[in-house]
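Backbone-to-sequence.
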């Protein structure tokens, strides 16, 4: 079982427009709602890739009800902690003429301490049967910055951590198996711009020295880098017709966890994860992957050692 755990899911609205004109009335030709947010995207992606996943998340109000109903309809087991705070609503604007994608993100609201405590207690139980765990997403205001560190310390399975900033820094000493920020998140964590490949890899090695076995960096459609203490390799994602790029990084994390949970090496896992991210870009709704296509894409992706 893959456990996807996070504290800031979302109920997502996707609007398709011809063109987005700022300061004007914009009419959508298509509107779709779906369960989303990083933890949910990981769970849905892993469900389509592996078929054996459980989602642990905080939810609330009507938007939490809608999210829970969709996960049930998809057949995804959940452990949902209900709070007094409505699940946030985020909006994706897709311009058909581009396509250009704009994301409107509602920041998470503060969560009552009791719900955080319930989440931590539930995690300690749910991680026991996991072959791999993905911890992902920002933290709600007031949640301790050490929460990912504390959760990883309780975890016996390999952990893929998709976080940034203080919560990522706090967790490094617990030696997660993989930390997976994107390039912008890595820059935020090390506190400086990373303008060249050598600067990027140097920053990855800084993180590796602080504890994790692997640091993996994604950059949208650009090269992916993976670094451990003795290896650095890279690969290039395949070209696909992009419909909606939102959640590609989450599907990467899902693919990585599924491969790791099946006992694959990192050299075998990265192409599968890259293929999952590429397949997600073809889809309107995040995480709704076609496993057969992911397997085919993965066979076309080669990794190579990084040369400074």
């Amino acid at each position: 079982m893959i456990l996807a755990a996070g504290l800031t899911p979302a109920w997502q609205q996707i609007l398709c427009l011809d063109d987005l004109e700022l300061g004007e009335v914009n009419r959508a030709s298509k509107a779709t709602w779906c369960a989303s947010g990083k933890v949910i995207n990981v769970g849905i992606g892993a469900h389509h890739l592996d078929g054996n996943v459980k989602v642990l998340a905080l939810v609330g109000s009507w938007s939490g009800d809608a999210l829970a109903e969709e996960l049930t309809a998809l057949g995804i087991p959940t452990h949902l902690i209900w709070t007094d705070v409505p699940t946030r609503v985020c909006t994706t604007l897709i311009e058909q003429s581009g396509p250009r994608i704009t994301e409107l993100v509602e920041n998470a609201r503060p969560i009552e301490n009791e719900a955080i405590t319930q989440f931590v207690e539930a995690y300690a139980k749910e991680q026991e049967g996991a072959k791999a765990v993905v911890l992902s997403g920002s933290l709600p205001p007031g949640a301790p910055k050490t929460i990912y560190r504390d959760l990883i310390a309780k975890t016996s399975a390999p952990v893929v951590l998709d976080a940034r900033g203080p919560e990522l820094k706090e967790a490094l000493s617990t030696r997660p198996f993989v930390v997976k920020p994107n390039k912008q998140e890595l820059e935020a964590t090390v506190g400086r711009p990373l303008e060249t490949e050598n600067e990027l890899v140097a920053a990855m090695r800084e993180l590796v020295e602080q504890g994790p076995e692997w640091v993996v960096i994604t950059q949208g459609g650009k090269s992916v880098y993976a670094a451990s203490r003795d290896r650095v390799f890279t690969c290039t994602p395949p070209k696909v017709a992009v419909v909606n790029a939102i959640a590609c990084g989450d599907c990467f994390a899902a693919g990585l966890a599924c491969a790791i949970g099946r006992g694959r090496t990192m050299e075998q896992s990265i192409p599968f994860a890259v293929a999952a991210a590429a397949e997600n870009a073809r889809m309107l709704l995040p995480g709704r992957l076609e496993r057969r296509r992911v397997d085919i894409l993965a066979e076309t992706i080669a990794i190579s050692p990084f040369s400074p």
